Amino acid sequence: ISEKGTVYTAMASAVAEDKGDSQIAWGFTQSRYLEDLDINRLADEIVSGAVSLLGGKPVPTTSLPVLFPPYSFSQILEAFFQAFSGEFLIKGKSYFDDKKDQKVAPSFISIVDDGRLTHGIMTRNFDDEGSPTQKTQIIKDGVFKNFIHNTYTAKLSGEKSTGNGFKATFKEPPQVYPSNFYLQKGTGIKIESKTFKVIQLLGLHTANPVTGDFSVGASGALIDGKGFSQPVTGVTLSGNFFQMLKDIIQVGDDLRFYGNFGSPSVLVEKMVLGGI
Q1: Nearest 5°: phi and psi at 135?
Q2: So where are the chain's domains?
C-alpha cells in the first residue's frame, strides 16, 4: 500500500528596533497545497509580534488571567500530547490512566486526533504500520474518552489501534504519535479584565508531560477590554497542564494549525506570572 502527498512550509523571523531596543519574533505556516500557503498572513503576524514587544519589561509577580493565541496553545498541546498516548498508558505514566469517562475539563472543551482531516498536514489513509487512520475523540464535552494507539500499545491495553503508529526513521520501530491533533473551536473570547496575552513561550521542551508541570520564559502584553496594552518581557509563566484544562473559561472561534497541532485562542482563568 502506498500514497503520495505534498507539504509546503514557510518559515520567517522579524526584527523590530526602536531607541536601542531590539525584539525578534518567529513563525511558520504549512499547507498541503501551495496556493493555500498564506505567506502574507505569516509576515503580518511576526511583524506585529516583534513590534508589540518593543519597550517591554518585567512586571511584578502576579496571578491573573492568561490569553493563549492559537500558536501558543498549539505549542502547549504538542508539549503534553504524550499524556494522551498509549505509550504513557502502558508505562503507567499517564495522568488519564484511571480517568476514562470522567470529567477532566469544562463541557465546552473537546480535543480530537483526526487522521482523515481535510487538508490536514498528517492526513493519510493509513499509518506506518498499515493500520487505517481515523478520527479519535480524546476529550469530548469535557469528558476523557480515548487514548491514541499503535498496534503494540493497543494490544497491551486491550484496545484497538487508532492508526497512530508512526516511524521517525526507517530504522526505528513505530511510536505512538498524533496525526492532526487539535482543540476544537469555541464561540469566541471577550476580555473583561487585565489579562496577560502570550506572544512567545521559551523552554516548553522542559515541561513534564507526566506531572503536567511547566515553568517557561514568556513575552507578551498586559491587555484589557478597553484597548489598554503594555508590552511585557523577561517573565516566567508557571502552571500545570491538567489544571489548565480545568481552568479554561473561554475558547475562541479562530482555530489554526501549526504543523499537525492546532488550537483556537484559549483564555485560562488564572496563572502565575513571575516577574520582578
Answers
A1: -95, 120
A2: 1-52, 96-183
- Report how far apart, in Å, the C-alpha atoms of 161 and of each of 4, 101, 131 are: 23, 19, 7
Give percent of the chain above pLDDT 90. Answer: 96
Grid cell in block for residue 274: 513571575
Return d(Cα 79, Cα 60) in angstroms, integer. Answer: 27
The residues pairing with 85 across neighbouring beta strands, listed in sequence order, are 148
* Residue spans of alpha helices (H) in the chain: 39-52, 70-80, 86-90, 151-156, 241-247
By C-alpha distance, which of 240, 233, 222 is closest to 66? 222
pLDDT digits (tens, 9 = 90+) for 48-82: 999 999 999 999 999 999 999 999 999 999 999 99
226 pLDDT more than 90: no
**CA–CA distance, 151 with 128 (Å, rounded to integer):** 11
C-alpha to C-alpha distance for 51 and 43, rounded to whole angstroms: 12
For the stretch 85-135, pLDDT in tens is: 999 999 999 999 999 999 999 999 999 999 999 999 999 999 999 999 999
Nearest-CA neighbor of 197 among 171, 225, 169, 163? 225
Q: Which residue in this structure is represented by grid cell 511583524? A: 47
* 50 SS3 class: helix
| Closest of 69, 15, 82, 1 to residue 46, by C-alpha | 15
Is residue 114 within 8 Å of residue 179, measured between CB atoms?
yes
Q: Which pLDDT tens digit goes with each residue over 182-211? A: 999 999 999 999 999 999 999 999 999 999
- Alpha-carbon gap, residue 221 to 39, rounded angstroms: 25
